[in-house]
Each structure stands twice: as structure tokens, then as C-alpha cells.
Design goal:
Distance between the termini: 20 Å
Strand content: 25-35%
CATH topology: Thrombin, subunit H
CATH architecture: Beta Barrel
Largest sheet: 6 strands, antiparallel, barrel
Strand order of the largest sheet: 2-3-4-7-6-5
Number of domains: 1
Shape: globular
CATH superfamily: predicted glycosyltransferase like domains
Radius of gyration: 18 Å
Order of helices and strands: EEHHEEEEEH
Number of helices: 3
Length: about 190
């Protein structure tokens, strides 16, 4: 999996990788019109699980972890397993296309065929497989703020993310920052 990071005044620190992505106009996403707070909570749990995967190093565990912290970690793991199993049991197989996606805490970008790309101002429901270790995608809402011409018949679509809420946005920033650090470490190791 090729990852890269970039930052710029337009989108800020971002993480770029091959991700499964599907989108549809928000008005058509009736099956997923959950309560905004429920959607934020589901996305926050997924990103926390991703951070947990990155934090967990069995060889670094010490006896200093008290029983309360151990029980909280077990409860968080069980919650994540239940959430993922529920998702897997309730979802039909989908053919989500894998694309090169750039994600920041405020924006999402990907290349799309010009004739099917959403129009500027259109509000979208987006399913984003941010990491192959997570079978459940993030479900995001955003509005198209820009269509940037690319090669023939292709445009880069930039979405301004909406309705994230402060806790979810903070966790998303941590995930992006960790991706950035891993990429810097990879580049240094190649030198």
C-alpha cells in the first residue's frame, strides 16, 4: 500500500493512500440517514480502534498497567468487536472502488471521471475505507467545494467535510498525523 503525506495552505496536513471510496448524493442516502450524533460516535469508535491498533505493541506491555485500565481496554476492544461484527452481518457485499484519496481533518479529495463527478455545491454521503484493518468504512458527509481539472475526462473532487464534531475531528487529526509520521520515517529509512 502506497501512502504519502502532503500539506498545503488549502487543505492543511493530509494523508494520501489507496482507499475504498463510494459516494452518493446525500438526498439518496436514505438507508444511512442516521442521527448525526450516532454517526459521529460510530466513526469515532472506528478511528479509536485504528489508533489502538497503532498503539498496541505486546512487547512493550509492562506490569504497571493497573487493573482498571486493563478492564477499560478490554471493554473498548469488545465494543469494537461487537460494532464490527454487527456491520459485517448487516452489509451486503459491495464493489467499492479503491482510489487514491487525500484526507485532512477538513477536506477529502479524489479523482473522478468528469461526466459522473458531483457538481460544486452538491452535498454527498461518503463511505471511506480508511484502513484495510477496518472492515467497516467511515461514513462522512460533505459538500463539493471544488472540481480541479486533471488529465482528459478526469477531475479532482474536493469535499469540505461537515458535521464531524470536535471529538471526532480531533481523533481524525491524530490518525492523519500518525500517517504523516510513518511516511517521514519511511522516507528517512530509504536514505
Amino acid at each position: 500500500m502506497h501512502n504519502e503525506t502532503s500539506s498545503g495552505p488549502e487543505i492543511g496536513l493530509s494523508f494520501t493512500s489507496q482507499m475504498h471510496l463510494t459516494w452518493q448524493p446525500f438526498a439518496q442516502a436514505t438507508e444511512r440517514r442516521d442521527n448525526t450524533e450516532e454517526l459521529r460516535l460510530r466513526n469515532r469508535r472506528l478511528l479509536q480502534l485504528l489508533l489502538f491498533y497503532d498503539d498496541y505493541h505486546p512487547e512493550q506491555r509492562t506490569e504497571e498497567i493497573d487493573q482498571k485500565n486493563g478492564l477499560e481496554r478490554i471493554e473498548a476492544k469488545l465494543d469494537a468487536v461487537i460494532q464490527l461484527l454487527t456491520f459485517l452481518c448487516s452489509q451486503p457485499d459491495t464493489d467499492e472502488e479503491q482510489r487514491l484519496v487525500s484526507l485532512s481533518a477538513q477536506y477529502l479529495e479524489w479523482a473522478e471521471t468528469e461526466r459522473i463527478a458531483p457538481a460544486v455545491g452538491e452535498r454527498l454521503h461518503i463511505r471511506l475505507g480508511i484502513d484495510p484493518r477496518l472492515p467497516q468504512p467511515l461514513e462522512l458527509v460533505g459538500s463539493v467545494v471544488q472540481r480541479i481539472p486533471q488529465e482528459v475526462d478526469r477531475v479532482k473532487v474536493r469535499i469540505a467535510l461537515q458535521d464531524l464534531g470536535e471529538p471526532l475531528q480531533g481523533i481524525l487529526e491524530k490518525v492523519i498525523f500518525r500517517g504523516h509520521r510513518r511516511e517521514i520515517a519511511r522516507i528517512r529509512a530509504q536514505r
